[in-house]
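Our consortium's second objective concerns turning raw sequence data into structural hypotheses that experimental partners can test. To show how far this objective has progressed, the report includes one record in full. It was chosen at random from the queue rather than selected for favorable results. The single chain below, 90 residues long, was entered without modification.
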Amino acid sequence: MSLELINFAKQFVAGDLSAGTFADPYISKWSDERDANKLKDDDDNVSECASSIFVLADCYNPDFDRRESELDEDGLKCEVKATLEKFKLS
């Protein structure tokens, strides 16, 4: 099931989605999978990658007064891409 999350992240990295149309829906989809206990059904690599991207999506802040720990759209895209590559899911 989390492969849907990974594919959603790939769409974002490819430029098919803006950060605004990616971050909140990703968080919602990940949370739904967690609540339905579906994350355990996936390979550990996929599940860990999806969870790491969840944390990144949660750090997205489009506002100019974002904290240093928060990500703008370019930063989010870069970090999601690096995470997909780290888990060899790009």
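The partners drew two points from this record. The mean pLDDT is 93. Residues 53 and 80 are 6 Å apart (CA to CA). Both points have been shared with the crystallography group to help prioritize constructs.
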